[in-house]
Amino acid sequence: MPNAKILSEKQAIVESLAARLQGASAGVFVDYRGITVAEDTQLRRDLSQSSVEYSVVKNTLTKFALDKAGLSGLDHILTGTTSMATSAADPIAPIRIISEYSKKMGDRFNIKAAFMDGQVLSQQDIDEIALLPSKDALYAKVLGTMLAPITSLAVVLGQIVEQAGGSIEPAAEEAAEAPAAE
Predict the structure, then answer these.
(1) Comparing 15-29, 32-46, 136-150, which segment has the lowest mean pLDDT?
(2) Positive or negative CA dihedral for 154, 156, 161, 167?
(3) Longest C-alpha distance within the chain, in Å?
(4) pLDDT tier at 179, thresholds 50, 70, 90
(5) Which domain holds residue 159?
(6) Taking a C-beta distance cutoff of 8 angstroms, is the pair 59, 28 a contact?
(7) Alpha helices of the chain — where are they, by DSSP H?
(8) Is 182 a domain residue?
(9) Are 121 and 67 in a shared domain?
(10) Quick one: average pLDDT of 24-34?
(11) pLDDT at 29 over 90
């Protein structure tokens, strides 16, 4: 029978992992066997810049946390070395970054499994999601699409004014120099 203090510490770790899993919009489990300290440091830096939490986890405690979080079906991956990357903000970030590192490092860094919104993803889903741009890049693309018609209108109106022999700049200067109405 384990010591009561050790048991309570392990229960606290399971609770913490379960809360992290439940609060995550996406996560990835990795077999990190054989990576160097420099590679691990760079990986952690890239993940933290994207607000992704990354840590090495104990398989047995993670199994209990997965069951508690309702992510059943992942027990088979909990062998060997296991680390976990989760994100509450950007669901694409952990999958994209970990996939990039997996391709760079080959057999030394492999994705075991991933989940998104409480669902376990297939390898095909992981590969497709890894190709998506980041959340900020998608926002920029949408904003650019929304601004394109307005920008085009401004260019066309400027050309019409120039063709009529006028200029936009002197009109703006005159408006600024005109005395305020009293």
Answers:
(1) 136-150
(2) positive
(3) 93
(4) low
(5) 137-177
(6) no
(7) 4-23, 37-49, 59-69, 93-105, 123-130, 135-163, 168-177
(8) no
(9) yes
(10) 90
(11) yes
